[in-house]
Each structure stands twice: as structure tokens, then as C-alpha cells.
Amino acid sequence: MKRFMKLSVVLILGLVVGSCGGSSSLDNTAATVFLTVDISAYNPDVDVCLQQLDLAIENMEITSNTKDPGGTTSAAQDVNLTRWVIKPYRTDGGSTASPEWSYDQAVFVPSGGSASLENYRIYPFEYLSEVPIAYLFPQNGGFDPETGNTNIRQSFELTIYGKTVSGKSVATTPVPVAFNFYCNGQ
């Protein structure tokens, strides 16, 4: 009987200790805010034979929202965005996409507020001479060999990473930005 009691006490203590850690909803490892991105203006049609600059988004707003609709915010939930990642993917049936690109750029988003960006670089000019877009230039045939089309449609999936002032990681939901690439109006 004493042995059974000792075993029961050990099992109960094990359950109590085991239930105190891990994936409790009270864990304090995630930011209490989330970010949304609204792209209100950009030119989706790009003539790569005339393009002389990086691709840019004319107007973009990044808004900080509290995860708890009734919750309050403080300066500890302000966000410093630091890493921008662009992952192109084809939307026209082709399989070869432009190269991924990432860069570091600081943008501050106040808790419960927003950051408005104008003419924000989303993709570097020099990447427009890489496959598959390079196929559209006359010296390379002027068409995409995968689809046979004289244009290439891609979306650039934009994800922005950062941390709150209190050190919690935060990232935007990936946002697709659609482009239609062509050469000389074709």
C-alpha cells in the first residue's frame, strides 16, 4: 500500500510539472500585434526593354493591429521591420521563376499605427536580365520557351520580418504582387 501511495504521488507530481510548460496559451513568445500590408498603387505592366529602374510600389501602407481586439497597446509593441523577402512565382503556366531576392531595410511601425511608404523598391533592375525574363529580349528570341508567349506573368510574394521593441518576432502575411513582363509592347 505504501508503495502504491509513493507511486501515485510521483505520478501526480510528474503530471503537475509536465503540464506547467510547453504550449500553454499563456506563453509569452509571440508578438501581441500583427501587421497588414495594403498596396494601393503600382504599375503591374513592365516593358523590360524600356525599364531603366528598380521595380517599385508607388504606395504601400503597413498597419499594426492588436491581436486582442479590446486590448491596449504600448510602445513595447512598436515594430522595427528589418528584412524584406521577395519570392517570385509564375502565374502563366511556366515553371521557371525569377530569382528570389531579400534585403535589409529599416521601417518603423508604431503600435496601433501605420507606416506609409512611397516608391518603395520591390525588385532590383539587374534581376530583370535574369532567366526567365531575359528570354523576352529580342537577342534571346523575344518569347518564353516554356509557354511560347511573348510575355511572362509572375507574382512576387512579399514578406516583411522584424521585431517588436520588446523583442518579439513579427512578420507580415505574405502579400502577392502581380506583374506582367513584356518587351517592346508585345
Would you kindly provide a written description of the structure presented here, covering whatever features stand out?
The protein is mainly beta and 186 residues long. It contains 1 helix and 9 strands. The chain has one helix at residues 2-18; strands at residues 33-41, 45-47, 55-66, 79-90, 101-109, 114-123, 151-164, 169-171, 175-182. The strands form 2 sheets. Strands 2, 4, 5, 7, 8 and 9 form a 6-stranded mixed β-sheet that branches. It has a 3-stranded antiparallel β-sheet with strand order 1-3-6, with no helix packed on it. The protein is elongated, with a radius of gyration of 24 Å.
Draw up the topology in text.
Layout: H1 2-18, E1 33-41, E2 45-47, E3 55-66, E4 79-90, E5 101-109, E6 114-123, E7 151-164, E8 169-171, E9 175-182
Parallel strand pairs: 2-9
Antiparallel strand pairs: 1-3, 3-6, 4-5, 4-7, 7-8, 7-9
